[in-house]
Design brief:
Layout: E1 5-10, E2 13-18, H1 29-43, E3 50-55, H2 66-72, H3 80-99, E4 104-107, E5 111-113, H4 115-122, E6 125-129, E7 133-135, H5 146-152, H6 158-167, H7 173-179, E8 184-186, H8 191-203, H9 207-221, H10 225-240, H11 243-253
Parallel strand pairs: 2-3, 3-4, 4-6, 5-7, 6-8
Antiparallel strand pairs: 1-2
Helix pairs in contact: 1-3, 4-5, 9-10
Amino acid sequence: MTEILSRKDAGGIATLTLNAPDRLNALSDAMLAALQTQIDALADDPATLVVILKGAGKAFCAGHDLKEMQAGRQAEDGGQAYFADLFARCTKVMTGLIRLPQPVIAAPHGIATAAGCQLVASCDLAIAAEGTRFGVNGVNIGLFCSTPMVALSRNIPRKQAFEMLTTGEFIECDRAEALGLINRAVPHERLETESRALAETLAKKLNPAVRIGKRTFYEQLEMRLDAAYAHAGSVMVENMMWRDTDEGISAFLEKRPPNWRT
């Protein structure tokens, strides 16, 4: 069988490809399980410096698998236990991406809808193919995208997020970029090249600094201003104590490449 989620490693960059194109790479039970397995593996993988997440076929991800969700209703409780477990598993995947020590770059194309849009919003960076459409469209079928809302509302301004959630309308790449859902859009034929180039740029940085920086970035966002500064300050003190940071500063002042050990 073809892997539902493929992984390719090269140059310290792990590329994960959602590989169920016949289902528009829906977040089925199997897809969520495969993503969680890779997230768990990457969390303990010092050799991987950056992660790229993309989709096979004509779309990035169309959200949850609605056929599986309807099948879940056949349980005696009408599916309540299944749905609670499903959204808990999905939440674990989304928060797992944020908690990975490596930066994660989404490379969407085609469409990223509902939980697929949530997936983009849960990645640290996003480079999209021109023509990609983004939406949280569940309201159109009577299911408000409440869990995608959590990630979306932490990426874009609240009124724009609420409009997307209540109208169920798509936004195009230019709008997604202006709102901050993606970093930029590139021609489709350059999507792989551009996402790889960004990954390679990040991979060249001092890896422990990027890892501590990503962790602190998300930690301070949840704090009040004074607490955020206090926390970030203590992290910078820790960072300054590293041998490689000393070497990096010395190399900059001496106008030479740094000789990092990490």
